[in-house]
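Annual report, structural modelling task.

Input specification for the iron/sulfur cluster complex:
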Amino acid sequence: MRAEGAQTPGSRTLAELVRTLGTELRERYCERVHKLALDTGFTCPNRDGSLGHGGCTFCNNESFAPSAKARPDVLEQMSRGAAVVAKRTGARRYLAYFQAYTNTYDRLDRLDSLYRQSLSFPGCVGLSIGTRPDCLGEGVLELLARIRDEGHLVWLELGLQTVFDHTLERVNRGHGSDVYFEASRRARALGLPVCCHLILGLPGEDRGHALESHRMVVDAGVDGLKIHPLHVVRSSLLAAQWRAGDYAPMSLSDYAEWTADLIERTPPDIVFHRLTGTCSEDLLLAPAWCAKKWDVLNRIESVLRRRGTRQGSALRLRSGTDPE
Ligand code: SF4
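The model returned the following structure:
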């Protein structure tokens, strides 16, 4: 399985310009904490027929869950991930990252059991739960709040992708942006930190769409942001659209410039969980640069350095304060 560094975005020097989850966790626990990505066999209402069968047009779940074929239990997955992390960095603390599919889409007792299994792993400090905003049924947020009250860190990662409903419809997302804002409000009212997942380069969207999505999310209140470029993976509807010439992926240069725009407009207390996506080369069709995470992060950093900006710079300029 993949052991995912919680210091994402991973560049040390980029972390001087951007508040990363890695920095946040290191300050809180006084040592490195790594995210361990888990695939515990959840499905998704947009794939199992409850909402639809095809899923989002860009979805091939294998692109973000490389371990989906062979699925060891939670503790085995954590153990394997921890072994990789130990070799790489020597870290001894972990965040259990329920990443694949929709990680609140099951019976409450099964969710409770899976979350608690992960927390029983030695060194596990908490959970990061990736899910759709329309899958927070009866008792789910309360369960997460209880786990938080027991002393664990809990992040709720909500997929929004864009605030533009016509785009959400176009990518067959199966929910509108209003569902995200209501879910985020409910979670934050319980004191649960929310990380909003946005995708840049969605069909029909430009820099202005990215800026507006980011503005609305930040204005509504959010604790973390996860940003990545739309990539075309095998066995997705988007792949057929791309082959037919109906979708053109964005360039690395555009992605770095747009992402820098968003970083500059993000208040300094908001934590970036991710600034680019990862996809295995055997699944990725386009754009090819998506396979090179470090190149993307370096490019974002070089844009910020060229501009002399950092997280929150645009806000300080707007309020009349000199940038650092
Ligand atoms: S919500 Fe996630 S898992 Fe479900 S279809 Fe969309 S991308 Fe795939």
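DSSP finds eleven helices and ten strands in the chain.
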